[in-house]
# Entry
Amino acid sequence: MAITLTSKRRLAPVGVLVAAGIAALLILSAAFAPQIAPSNPLDLATFNLADSEIPPMWAEGGDRRFLLGTDNQGRDMLSAILYGARVSIMIGGGAVLLAAVIGVSLGLIAGYLGGRTDAVIMRIGDVILSFPTILLALLVAGLARAVFPEAANPRYVPFVLISAIAIHEWVQYARTVRAATMVESARDYVKAARVIGLPSTRIMFRHILPNVMSPVLVIATINLAGAVLTEATLSFLGVGMPPTYPSLGTLIRIGNEFVFSGIWWIALFPALALVILVLAVNVVGDWLRDRFNPKLRGRG
Amino acid sequence: MLRILLSRLAQMLMVMAAVTAVAFVIFRYVGDPVLIMSREDATPAEKVALREQLGLDQTVVVQFAKFAGRVVTGDLGNSFRNQRPVSGLIAERLPATLELVLVATVLALALGIPLGVYCALKPASWLTRGIQTVSLIGISTPTFVTGIVLILIFSVWLKWLPSFGRGDVVKLGWWSTGFLTTSGLRSLVLPSVTLALFQVTLIMRLVRAEMLDVLSSDYIRYARARGLPAGYIHRKLALRNALMPVITVTGLQIGALIAFAIVTETVFQWPGMGLLFIQAASFVDLPVMAAYLLFVGFIFVSLNMVVDVIYALVDPRLRTRAA
Amino acid sequence: MNVVPALAIENLRVEYPREDGGILVAVDDVSLTIMPGEIHAVVGESGAGKTTVANALIGLIEKPGRVASGTMRIGGAILDPVTGKGEGLQLGRDIGVIFQDPMTSLNPLFTIESQLTETMRFHLGLSASEARVQALELMHAVGIPEPERRLKSYPHQLSGGQRQRVVIAAALSCNPKLLVADEPTTALDVSIQAQILALIKDLTRTRGLGVMLVTHNMGVVAETANSLTVMVRGKAVEQGLVVDVLRNPQHAYTRGLLAAVPRFDRKLERFAVMAEGGGKAETARKAIAGQKQSTKGNMAGPLLSVDNLVVDYTTRGWLPGSKGRTMRAVDGVSFEIRNGETLGLVGESGCGKTTVASVIAGLVQPTSGRVLYGGEPIAGDTATRGTRRASRQALQMIFQDPYASLNPRMRVGSILAEPILFYKLAANRADAAEDAAILLEAVGLDREHAERFPFAFSGGQRQRISIARALGARPRLLICDEPTSSLDVSVQAQILNLIKDLRDATGLTLLLISHDLAVVRQMCDRVAVMQTGRIVEMNDTETLFDAPSHTYTRELLSLVPRIDRISAA
# Structure
């Protein structure tokens, strides 16, 4: 991946450009799923049980109407995947956004104000981080259901999932932004702003924030991949999106029951879509990370 | 050193207190235990009796204190689902999960460290690029997809390895092990590989990043300027520095493995604690959920503590701070 | 007599390919010879290529850079720049190396013994116990007390000076012919610098070493080296004995460089610099001087007084609110700054001088004691929000690191307009922009520079922008915290001249924090000397320099490496 597009200005390695293209294509086709999908997998009236478990078009017994085959209820897999990706990306993106907003604000406040505020915020973060994402998300998603029966309503599930994922992920932004803010706060331009007498809010948001944003963008990219994976795992375990409104994880969960009988396409195609989507985002995120800040590490 | 340990101990107690509080809230406030535990045709009088029997008529503080007291003595209540003591259920499922996690950890370290070192030392080689590409695919593939694909290939198509359960186990006291039978070992292969793969990638990438960092440091430049052989610099000097953070991460990863075991155990129907938890969650079996949370919390916190102690023993800057 | 040189470099050329396909010549046709027992200084300002010459010798030219041509002979044998070896030559055995920062050149996870003996075990084939005996001897030779105990120590348990001694011991462990020392004392305080330089001189004489001393400090050259090479943009422009070159420099660049070094022995009106701002700057300064300054408070007494100031730093414990250890940074400091004067505050690193400045500027809250501005308390118990706010505008500050003192994401125009708008010193944005443009001209830049971002400027230019920003608030007192320590000496001279000119034009009062005694002598009316949190001596500059009364002041003054001992003769 060392080949560069132009020798003068290193734009990006070809591999990264390809990955960015694939990611953009997947995100766009998910966004426009209602326009491009052959059928609407959410509309019970459009599919027929008589069409169930048809293998992909090129396999023996395939049907030209269903490029990637159908599931146990006769849904077109391609359409289901496009709609499923849409759900996955929406939830992943939402979780990243929520986590970033919370994490950046708290990190900025903790790093700039220091003292007790900092200690309280970061200790809460420590406790949260001592549990893996998936466990915390499972707990939050599960509890939400137990407390509010309404949380199982497909209309609210995405919000429950977004919160369940963000509750763990904000810590990473907060830690990074806090560390960067502490570095920036000690730099002379921030001292100069303080000597001028500018109020703290102005110093934090006008002076420090723009200077700590590049690692945030890197984390956000890598986290998008992580959030999509976490959502898929929750849905796979049955605490995420319901089969009536499936995400990629739900589709794999449905397909998992048929793997043993050799009906592989119901699980495998959504899984492939998921891996390609996450991989593409990860490749871009990885490149961004190396480019913006070779020192920035940690799990994605 | 003592300061570090004490502050870590304080942290550990705080985390456990927080976890106990969450467990208590689950136990007490999620759903109505009386409704869940009583028969459908129970009379109001029976419900009041049950409420008193469960101590639900007392103040929240008293209830929490009693709850915490029971937790400390290991009494985690009875499962709503089959009315068995939760501690017994956990003890029954514990060996399966721990054996799985142990094998996966060893696999992950044995593969991850050498691969990471190789990638850092030979950044331009084709093998490195290959490893890094595969590693990216590795962190992009969720555990359950890996599991399904492995089952499809090795169980469904090739029919080489079993796809669910632990096989035959041998009882050693209360501990049941799958290490001593062929079917037990065969059953372990797919789940442990599945569980390890994601971690291999993480450890490999961490070791590579640390190693690259150390290699560009002043003291390694200085060692080069003293004409020391490259092999000595890499193996003896740089590796030790690079492995320091790996200790931390391995500790945290064992914790993460226990959590990810939920997924692996679901895919492979592995009778461990993760499966217990998922089943409990789908039946809203609150005592089991709370107990699992407490138990896993305790394991994580202890691991963190152990990591800190090891770190303090290995890093002279911490070991000799008081000197 | 035919002595083989310890080092002979002939026509060395080091190239770095540039991104646009061109080639950057970092070292261009440099030749130099160092005899055994000779210390040869390679001097020049940043970017001159002096460190690159050293790196070429020790095989540390980072790819894609390369040694394009030239030969390097160590004791007569040709050294291969790629492998660091040669006929009978071995890097580490025949060439010893000392780096700038002793804090980072030792591996934190290994004992001193391990790091000191490994070189001998590899290159001389000594056993562990033989190497240990040698190591003890070396520790003794470089003057480390309790060598037995220190061998078992880890680097973090040693002070900076001791670490640099260990590094020197390791460099000497295999009896090299040549020692390459790249800025070996730049990271150290003057008192430790003097000890390390004396040690290097002594070892050179007793062991017959050839030493290549890379430095930017002309004082160090004058006090330590026998001969020197002056480098500019990769080329060696002048070579010769230190005595000759310092007394009678031939090349114009060398003359300029020497003239820019602040003199220690007597005070001059201004620094000699190669080019100065024209009439535009003059007009702009008059415009600034005409602006109404902040005149709050009673101005009859001293402008600022610091009264029994104490500052403790407390490290935080793990739990919220818990406390760690306490360190006293400033321990009962009192002084006054008179209206219109320039007061110098000097001392070694960690003496508390920057903390004092930070308290005055309102960046740090004192533990006890107070600061009065025009008779009004602005820091300490009796200070109120109102008095603090009123003084803010009058007290402005410029900082040490020109690369950190400007927000990289803001245009210069916005940076300068910010204080003007904040204090409502201009009616609207357009007026503020005009004021900013005048400020830029006053500090010798162009008004068009307001459109650019800080990265487009050099260190010296950034420091000018910093000064302009401070002036924007129309202060009475300007606190200058090591304003030129990060700059090359010729740029330093320009910036110091600028500060003098602005002071003369606007009647500013200055507080100058510095570790550089020569700079202080040139700039200040009065000087206070600080040691471990206290002021040990305070007096008029001339009195203090000519007749210091405190032993610490005398010691400091005697330790400064200075060029006048040679050039003035």
